[in-house]
Design a protein that fits this description.
5-stranded mixed beta sheet, disordered C terminus, alpha/beta, globular, binds zinc ion
């Protein structure tokens, strides 16, 4: 697909960020670090059309003859990984855990079949089509990282140091952050979902957790001393923006723990946290179903559920919210999405 006005901005010396102009599932931010001889991408767009758009924008910014030689992938969700096919000669770098995680995700073509082949009248089929139907993976091959590591990895892009740190399970198993000390910037992946008063984002979704690990990762991100934070989705943040995000995560964690202690089942707990409307400016409140369920699994010590089952609950709650909104219409920031 093409997203009009996808925006590449310079955020520091030789550092650019590609920001999709809309929020929503799968519309992730990507980075370009340029030098006189080589260039690095941090994450890729979701499908080949979007990735081609980012590649064309990158080439306009790079000196003649310089190519994107490396791609660091912050985690193994497709919206950060599946565009790597447009730079087939680039070395794709991830954590070892992310490589393992890829085997649990549907392949791009399986996901495409799921989105276009589902019953659009069922909650799940309709939800997938509404939120993922804009992407095209009908001819996208799976991406396999070329280089994996655990712990820390240091590399250079021209004269610029790049410090890559693998994290304990947070958004997914196998997240990493990329710290660029010269640029005083950190690419956080989906450990952070950005939102500011000017550019409200979406509710975060966390598949792995526990939220304690996500919060610790945010604190680690601040401890780099950086000033510029590029989240996996949403606007670029300053240090206060990261602190606000920690407050959001702390609130959701506290509510999940209190509702769990009160014996409320996970799905009803998510419905209650959504109904509290603590952050009406954020889109996709139904994603709290996934985040609360992940937190409950850690409290209960239970297994990760089937992803389609979990998405079915998300779709069900989205439908309930839409029905509520239709019954009692009132201005909601979330309704302005798309
Ligand atoms: Zn993402």
């Amino acid at each position: 697909m093409t997203i009009n006005r996808a925006n590449v901005s310079a955020i520091a010396e030789d550092l650019y960020v590609w920001l999709p102009p809309k929020r929503g599932w799968g519309l992730a931010n990507c980075g370009l670090l340029a030098s006189a001889k080589t260039a690095l991408w941090i994450d890729t767009p979701y499908d080949p059309a979007l990735a081609g758009e980012f590649l064309a924008a990158s080439r306009r910014l790079l000196p003649a003859g310089v190519e994107v030689d490396r791609v660091i992938v912050t985690h193994a969700n497709g919206d950060h990984l599946w565009g790597a096919g447009v730079v087939p000669d680039a070395e794709v770098i991830s954590t070892r855990e992310a490589l393992e995680h890829i085997h649990y995700e549907p392949t791009p073509q399986q996901q495409h079949a799921l989105v276009v082949g589902g019953d659009p009248d069922s909650p799940l089929g309709g939800y997938l089509r509404e939120h993922f139907g804009r992407f095209d993976w009908s001819a996208t091959d799976p991406v396999h990282p070329d280089t994996v590591f655990t712990g820390e990895l240091e590399l250079r892009v021209g004269e610029y140091p790049v410090q890559v740190t693998g994290l304990p399970a947070a958004h997914t198993g196998g997240d990493l952050i990329v710290h660029l000390p010269y640029q005083r910037a950190v690419f956080t992946g989906d450990v952070i979902f950005g939102s500011t008063p000017e550019y409200p984002g979406d509710h975060p979704v966390h598949w792995a957790g526990p939220l304690e690990n996500v919060i610790t990762a945010c604190e680690r991100i601040l401890a780099t001393g950086a000033e510029i934070f590029v989240p996996g989705h949403g606007p670029v943040l300053d240090r206060d923006g990261v602190r606000h995000h920690i407050a959001y995560l702390t609130y959701v964690r506290e509510r999940a723990h209190a509702l769990h202690a009160a014996g409320i089942p996970a799905l009803d707990a998510a419905r209650r946290v959504i109904a509290e409307q603590r952050h009406p400016e954020l889109g996709l409140p139904e994603r709290l179903v996934l985040t609360v369920a992940a937190e409950y699994r850690h409290l209960d010590g239970t297994e990760v559920p089937n992803v389609l089952e979990a998405m079915g609950q998300v779709a069900q709650v989205a439908r309930e919210l839409a029905e509520d909104a239709a019954r009692s219409p009132r201005p909601r920031a979330a309704a302005a999405r798309d």
